[in-house]
Each structure stands twice: as structure tokens, then as C-alpha cells.
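Model the whole thing, not chain by chain.
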Amino acid sequence: MNYDPNIFVVDDDETLRGSLRWLLESLKLNVQTYASAHEFLSTYDPVQPGCLLLDVRMPEISGLQLQDMLKKRRIRIPIIIITGHSDVSMAVRAMKAGALDFIEKPFNDQELLECVQRALAMDARQRGEESQQRIAVERLESLTPREREVLEKVVCGKLNKIIAAELGISMKTVEAHRAKVMEKMGAHSAFELAKVYITGGLH
Amino acid sequence: MFRLLTALLLLTVAAADPAADDATRVAIGVLVRDGEHNAFEHWTPTADYLSRQIPERRFVIIPHNLDGMRRAVEHNELYFILTYPGQYADLQARYGITVLATLRNTWRDSLYSVAGAVIITQADRQDLEWMQQLKGKSFMAVSRDDYDCFQLAWWVFKAHDIDPFHDLSRLVFSGLPPEEIVYAVRNRTVDAGTVRTGVLERMAREGRIDLKTFRILHPQLTPDYPFARSTELYPEWPFARARGTPVEFAQRVANALQSMPVDHPAALAGGYAGWTAPLDYQPVHELLRDLHLSPYEDENRITVAAIIHEYGSWFIAASAFLLLLGVSGIHILRMNRRLKRSKRALRRSESALRALHDITSRHNLSFEGKAQALLALGCEQFGMPIGILSRVEGANYEIVEVVPSDGPIPKGSVFPLGHTYCVKTLQSAAPVSFEHAAQSEWRTHPAYDPCKLEAYLGIRVEVEGAVYGTLNFVSAEPRTESFTNSDKEILKLMAQWQGSEIERPRAEAHRRKLSTALEQTADSVVITNRDGVIEYVNSAFHQMTGYTREEISGKTAGILKSGKHNEQFYRQLWQTILQGETYHETIINRRKNGSLYYEEKTITPLKDARGDIVHFVATGKDMTKRRLAEEHLRQQQTQFAHACRVSAMGEMSTAIAHELNQPLTAIVNYAQGCLLRLHAGEVSRIDLLTALEHIAVQGRRSGEIIRRLRDFLRTGKSSQRTRSDINDIVREAADMAGLEARRKEITLRLELSNDVPPVHVDTIQIEQVLLNLVHNAIEAIDAAQWPRREVVIWTSRNPNNGVEVSVQDTGPGLPEGKGKTIFEAFFTTKPGGMGMGLSISRSIIETHGDQLQAMPNPDGGAIFRFALPAIEGGMLQ
């Protein structure tokens, strides 16, 4: 699988698509172009990293509508809105709906590059967060019910003694469970354990 | 010894070859037109060209005049002949020469191998508008033998029943150059003349004459031919082979000629543009035959010897016939006697006819006097004592005139029709007669008993196709001789004349009524003869033109020409009326005081009983005021339409800016990409070319948008109508309106029929109407936030063969109960609207001859439709 980030361009104007591809490729970026929101939705794989350059005005499904659809599908790709100078109000709506940025036609290459790089960085960060969370969940799911009980009490800051009392087990057993939990969760300290617990427990 | 033998051999070959000093020399006879020197100069390069193409032979030019050429061909002195088509045809018929190639000429990059003649006169000659008017005029041509023009013109003369050698006042043969003829016509030294096709145009191109100063007589339509002409087109000069020239050799010469390039120096020197495959010279033969020119000069000349030679057997037959005649002579003698008897009767009829003629031509006699005289003549002619002219109305029989006037039946007395013999007469077209009633079944007739009239001769009288009464002659004494056929014929004549005599005062009253109407009508009326010479004008004509009847009569209607219409216009007029059809058109004419006026003219040909046109009646209405008012209105409307276009553009400016932004963005992207790659030093030539190509295309795209705007905002002083394709107009409007539709996320669909005829419209204005309708539709859909967002423009051919255009939307529909007010100025449903769009659209469509209609769309929304008339076949240039 290709994990190089892609710039996904969705614009109904063929010339604009072509020229954007030319410009972005000049900046050594991978570019995928789509003539409509439909075309994009039917081929886009959310696993692929990248950002979306989206024309705000398009027939059938507009940029704003596509933004909305992505949101509903929980696809968190960063979106840069392409707009003409007269469409600023729509750009503002897009921003409120969660778009990262907007650029006005005709583009300044520096501005576009900065915009795109910011979007790619954001995507990378988001993707990083997502993977830590996934690991945390996996680890949490590997715990036995007793181990989970122990973990929950540990992250509450309770001492082993109190845990043993509350669970009606011996200190030794609590210690054994705790060591097992630390190992399973890949944590070296109670702080790290708490961090994994929070990351995984967000869902 | 050997050399001598060779020389001898060569001599023998030379003697066998046509006209050769040495075996390689090839003689080409060339017709001299303007001096031997010129002939050498023109044609030697062509001979040299052939010598180069066929190196073993040496081609030379032998100039000849017409006679010299004929003798040279007759004596077999030439290999090839280059002469004008008329002589070629002659020599072909007499000596079997055959054409190898036809000369080709060039004019403005096109090639022509045909030529004709043009007959010219001065353009301002109103007495010289068609061929027949050349009779009695002076005429100039190059020479009588000149096939190129005079003989062709001669044929046209002949076709118009003009003998150029008798019917012209003067026929001048000027000799070369033909330019002299053109100058002579221009300077009015002669009335008309003829030159070869192309001479005029060449002189005009050199700035030596102005074509407008000449009129082409008997002009021919020449779609593919660049020169004005009056005659048929005939092939150009032929290059021909003498009969003795070997075919294979001739073929090589033909190939060499036909492969000569158009711009070869030899062609340039000869003033031609190469050679083409031989054309058909049969038409030339036909022309010579028609004109009885050599070789056809002997046709139709009859000599006794020729008749005896041709028709010998007929003489024998004729002799036998004469013998037969002698035998029948005896029979004829016998018949003569019977003839004499008839002659006597004939003489009697003759005198009656003379008497009848005397009566009819006595103009001082009153109606009664003439009727009396007629009845008296009848009484005498038929030997009857009483003559009656009766009138029958219903069952009444009234004595209108009677002879003798003091006899037993008084004039004015009325009888029941049933008590007269005339009951029978009225029922029959032929005369009714009897000589002795008592001895025939007439004695049982109710009229017989009271009066005992024994003899009767009567016929019905018809007036205006209806039965008026009878003309009858009666006698109480029986007649001994029966009425003859000639008696009845004379009676018929009398009745006819009497009928017309009764009819005449009625017809005259009718005619007076008509002529008063003609005189007093507000329309101008002009009656001309077949040649357009004015015979009558009414007083309205005087008021309209300023010309009095005396000033205008005998002139042609051409005196009114304003110069605002071209020749084609008048040609069309004449063509229409000479074909016997009515012509109807608005014409700009010139008054006596020089001012112009518009006249709606109707010209109707009047035909005689045989269907031949004898007169033309032209009626006209002065349309000047209306035209000027219309013109003024049109100008105002044009200005207003422009203002509306500017305002419409204002409303659409956002969409336009957006549309311009697209190509500009693309251009900037490509350009920046190029810069980046060039800086990085890693760009392939092909990639760079592709990107630059895109930049150029997008630059043009922006230019096109700006062009369209500029066209649309163009100010026209007045409406400029052109022949246009409605689909092109719709596409252009849709391209502009599409910007806005796209912005508002509305689909603009075109449903264009390919079967639409061309229309004659102001394209910008129709585009404006469409743009306005689409703009309205888009705004209506958008303002209502309608879910179905589509505008469709349809074109189709309507039942009247015009074009129908409709704009259909899926918006909220027409405002309820507003009906026609939507078309009024300042009516608007839009918050920022001026309310001008529909009003101006409606008036634009009305000036194009239709109505702009609004109706609800059955699928929801509104439909606006209008129609445009198609161009009538070929009426427009």
C-alpha cells in the first residue's frame, strides 16, 4: 500500500484540474484528480493519507455537501476549499463546518504550498493519534476482567494495599496482576499506563 | 556519295512531311489578330516550350490571317493550328483538323477555359435597358469575322429578332484593341458595343474604367464565372492537329501542352494559363450554322439545279398530277354553273352587310335611329313588311322599336309573351323561321289565330350574356321562297350588333364609374405598355411624384428610379411581371423635386385574350411617413435594447467574473508550474510544450469570453438583420447564461432541432431575448430555492415553416393573475429588478413579426415561446 501522502483534487473544471495537477506536481507532490464528488467518494480509500483540495461550487454535489458527507462517514481528511473571490461567504461556511483553510483563485504557489503542507502535517498528526488509540484499545481488550479491575483502580491512583482490600485479594495477587497489566499495556509507569488507558478509553 | 544520298533521302522525307524545310521543323499556324510581330512575341515561347519537351523536333510559329490560315491548311503546310474557335470549327468541317488542347485563362486564382461576349451600354441610358431597344441605335464591335464577341453578340441579336446589319442605325467595326470599344461606349461615341468577356473587369482592375458607368445588356447569370456576360459561354482557343500530322506525335504534343504549369513563362508570354484537355466545340458549330457562317454559309440557299437534283422524282409525280387535273377540269365546268347561282345570293348578302356596316358606323344616329334603320334594312332584305325589336321581361313582351312606325302595332305596346311566336324564338340560340303558318303546325300556335301572321323570321337578342328580347320580322302574306342560310346569318349578325348597341351605354356608364374611381383614389395608379412606357397616370400619382400627366407620358417608369436599389432588384421586378405574376414590394423612388419616398407598389400584368401581356398596371401607396416613423421607432428600440443589455450584464457580472477567473487561474497555475520546474532544472521539453499549449488555449478562452461580452454590448445604430442559424444564436446565448446557471447550480439544457430553416434576424437582439428569458428563469428558480433546477431551450420547425423557440423552466411559475402585465415596462417580481427585460424582449420579437407568449409549464414552472419567420427561398442576397 502506498503511504506517501496524496493531494486529492475535486473540481468539475477539467482545465483547472489539469493546471492544479501540473502545479502541484511541480512541487513534487502526488496528485489525484476527480471531476465530481461522486467520483471521489467511489474511489477514495480513507486509509490513504493526504488532503483534499475541494472546489466549493460544483453541480449536483457541491463542495459543502461533500464536506458534510465525509463528516458523516467519520472521514477526517483535512479539507482546503478552492474559491473564487466572489464566493467568500461560502468559504466561511465551509470553514465553520470544519475545513482547514481556503484559497482563492488564482492561486499563489507559495500560499498553496504552505496550505497543502499544513494540511498534510495535520493529516499525519491525526493519523498518528488514531494509530496510538487503536493500539491502546487492542491492549485494553487483551486484559482479563480481573486485570481490567486492577487497572481501573491503578489509574485512579489507588495504592496496591487499598486495591487488595477492595477486591478482597492478597497484596501479592494485586502486584502480580499489576505487573501483568503493565506488561500487556506496554507501560513503564503508572503515568504511562494512565495515558494508554485514556487514549483507548476515549471510544 | 553517301552524304548526297542522305541529303536526297532527307529531301524525300521533307517533301512527304507537311511544309518542312528540314525533317525536324514543326510548323504551328497561328492566327494573327494584332500584327505578325505580336503573334511571334506571344507564341514563340510556347513553340520553344514544345521544342524543349520534344527535343528531337523544332517547333516554329507561322503567323497567318484567316484566309492565309485556310490556304495553309488546305495545302497541308502546317502540323498544328492555333486559331479562334470559329475558324477551328470551319477548318474542322472542311479539312478534318482536330483539337488537342483548349487554352486556359486565369482570373483571381481561378482557371477558365470558356469565354463569351458582353454587350454594354451606358448605365444611365433609360432608353437602352433591353436588347430590343438596340434597334435604331449605333453599335461597335471589333470585326465582323471576330468570333470572340461579334459573332456571339450577333447570335443574341438574332434571338431578339434584330438584324445587326439592317436594324441598327450604325454598325462600326473598330478593329483591335477592344479597349477602344469600351471607351467609345463610355464617351457616348456609340450607343452600345460588344467586347470579349473579361475585358471590362481587367480594365476596371487597372483603374481605367468604372464598371458602374456601364450597363450589361441581356445579362446572363454566371454563378461560377467571374465575368459579366451577355452571351452563352464557348470554349477558348483550341490547339489543333492537321489531318496529316501523325496521331502518336500529336498525342505527345497534347501531353506536353496539358502538362504546362499555369505560371510557365511561355504561358505568361502568351497571356494565358496553360492548357486543358480539349473541350467540346459542338456549340461553336451550332452557332455558325445558326448564323449561316462558313462552313454553313450554303445552307438554306435554294437553287433550281439543287431542287432538280434533290427532288427529281417529285417532278415526275407532279406531272402525273397535272394530267389528272386536266381530266377533272371538265367536271369543274359543270360545277361552275351552280356556283354562279350561289354568287347572286352572295352578292345580295354582301350588299346587306354593307348596309349593316353603314348603319353601325353612323355615329350621329341615336339609338332609336339606328334600331329603326336596322329594322328597315331587315324588312327590305328579307322581304317582310314588319320588323320588331322586342324586350321580354317575365311574361311581358314589349315592343321597343317597330317598322313601320305608323303601322298596326304601336311602339311601347305590351303583349303577353304567350301570345307571340317569340316564345319559341327565346328558347333557341338559332333563328326561328317559317314561310307559311297555315300550311304548317304553326297554325295551332296561340299567336296564329288573332293576327293570322303567315311568315316569321326571328332570333333572340342577348345583352351581357342574358336574354334581352327578340329581333323578328313578320308578314301577313305567306312567303313563296324559303329563308336561306345567308338570310339567317345576316339576322344573327343584326341581333349581335343590336345586343352590343343596347349594352354599350351600360358598359360606358360602368367604365365611367371605374375611371372616376381610378382618378379619385388616394393610391397612385400608373398604366404602362409592355415595355414600361407610361400611358396613363392618375392625379394621386401627380401628387405623390410631382410629375404631371403631360410630363410623364411616353417616358418609362425608370424616371422614378432613386438609385437606392441595385440592378438585381429591378431585374427581379421585371422577371416577375414578365412571367405574368403580380409584383409586390416597397420601393424607394425619387420625386420630381429630387426627394425620396417609399412606395408600396403592386404591379399587375394585364393580358389580352391570347394570354399575352399587353399592359402593366402599377398601384402605389406612399409609405414614407410610416417608414420614417418605423425607422425612428426602431432606432429608439435599438438604443433601449442596448441599455437593457448593459443592465443585464450588470446583473450577471458576478458570473462573468467567475467565468473569467477559471481560465486565468489555469494560466497562472501552468505558468507557476513551469517556473518551478525550470528553476529546479527538471522539466522535459514535451511537458513544457504541453503546459504552454494549455496556457495559450486558456488565454484564448478568456479572450473569447471578452469578445462575446463586447459583441453583446455592441451598440447598433439600427437593427442589423442577417441570415442566421437559430441554433447558433441559442448556443451563444446559452454559453453566456451558462455562467450564471453554473454558479447557481442550475442545469441549462439545449434541445435543438437540426431541421430548422435559416432565419433573417438581428442576432444580438434575439440573443438578448434568450438571455433575458434564461436569466429570468434562473433567478426565479434560485429565489424560490426550488428543488428541481433546470432550464431548457428548445428549437423546432413550426407548421408555418418558421422556427419556434421556447425557454422552459422548473421554477415557481408565472405570477398568479398577472396575465399580460408581466410584459409591461417596470413590472417585476425580483427585488432588484428593473422590470425592463420582458418588455424589451416582447418589442424585439414583435419587430421580428411574432408575439412573445408566456404560458404555464405542464410539469411546473413557466414556458416562454416565440416564432421567427424563415427566409423565403432565395429572396435574400
